[in-house]
Amino acid sequence: MAETTIRVAAAAPYDVVVGRDVLGTLPDLVGAEVRRVAVVHAPGMETWVDRLPGLGDREVLALALPDGEAAKTADVAVRVWEALGEAGFTRSDVVVTLGGGATTDMGGFIAATWLRGVRVVHVPTTVLGMVDAAVGGKTGMNTGAGKNLVGAFHEPAGVLCDLALLDTLPRAELVSGMAEVVKCGFIADPTILDLVEADPEAALDPASPVLRELVERAVRVKAVVVSADLRETGGSDGHPGREALNYGHTLAHAIERATGYTVRHGEAVALGMVFVAEVARRAGRLDEATAARHASTLALVGLPTRWRGAPFEELLATMRVDKKSRGDLLRLVVLDALAAPAILAGPDEQLLREAYDALAP
């Protein structure tokens, strides 16, 4: 099947290319006049750096990051900045990220901050990276206070989602990435939920047309949302705008921090969605059937729906410094109905505690 091109009509429009064996598009995105390309990559991707097409006649600087969230620290940023400086990396050069969500987040942040911004092309190698981190121009790194609290908005020059890169991805990572796909089903495109529920095994098969359609649909959801609200200033007609993409993420980031990022991001997001659906149900915002559908759909692809790995008080303290909070006011993305996201501001603490208790195994 031919590649699919999805246009992100942001301030600086760019294309997301989805398909198998689409890396041949990379030279066009990098540009013919570029002298240096910094490939910021995840561990174990060294051989892929050499196989990226169209870079042979350019000076390639391969910069390996630590694994996972360990990549997203100030020390790593400084190390990469110093390497770019030593290589004479200029504003006319390009960063290419090659890896999962953490690599994309950090590589994008490096590109956004070096010389106040250089071009970046994302080549995500995980489902999570394809449908979430690589699209939308958000970059970020972590601090001791929480996840992604430091960052910048920096749109890529393009994104290449080559599904062939998923062929060797561990199943646990495929499962984790599916949480962000399912999230897009709940906040905007219920057909995603129908596809997952109809054939959950095909949803986890990189060679299946089902997974391809799921990736394309999730990318389209994000493209539409970020095109209308790049910098999270809010949507219209009561829609939370880009904040809707954080559905389930307030508790998820708290879980990640509490466990030292040993819980995968998608696993934490799955738990966060079940939690916030229960919050909305108890607040009288969401019907019982839609709330229950969260756990049933997520469980079909092997994602967790029950957890009790940290005290509620610890998680609540972290949630209060979430990026959606305003002053001391905690704000959660909830659903008023399927594909109808909204903001619940200042939820009652006892209600939150009861919803968290409902996650107990």
Automatic annotation (TrEMBL):
It is found in: Cytoplasm. Gene3D superfamilies: 3.40.50.1970, Dehydroquinate synthase-like - alpha domain. The keyword Amino-acid biosynthesis applies. It catalyses: 7-phospho-2-dehydro-3-deoxy-D-arabino-heptonate = 3-dehydroquinate + phosphate. Binds 1 divalent metal cation per subunit. Can use either Co(2+) or Zn(2+). GO terms for biological process: amino acid biosynthetic process; aromatic amino acid family biosynthetic process; chorismate biosynthetic process. NAD(+) binds at residues 67-72, 101-105, 125-126, 138, 147. Pathway: Metabolic intermediate biosynthesis; chorismate biosynthesis; chorismate from D-erythrose 4-phosphate and phosphoenolpyruvate: step 2/7. CDD domains: DHQS. Keywords: Amino-acid biosynthesis, Aromatic amino acid biosynthesis, Cobalt, Cytoplasm, Lyase, Metal-binding, NAD, Nucleotide-binding, Zinc. Residues 63-174 form the 3-dehydroquinate synthase N-terminal domain. InterPro entries: Dehydroquinate_synthase, DHQ_synth_AroB, DHQ_synth_fam, DHQS/DOIS_N, DHQS_C. Its cofactor is Co(2+); Zn(2+); NAD(+). Its main location: cytoplasm. NCBIfam families: aroB. Belongs to the sugar phosphate cyclases superfamily. Dehydroquinate synthase family. This is 3-dehydroquinate synthase. It comes from Marmoricola endophyticus. The gene is aroB.
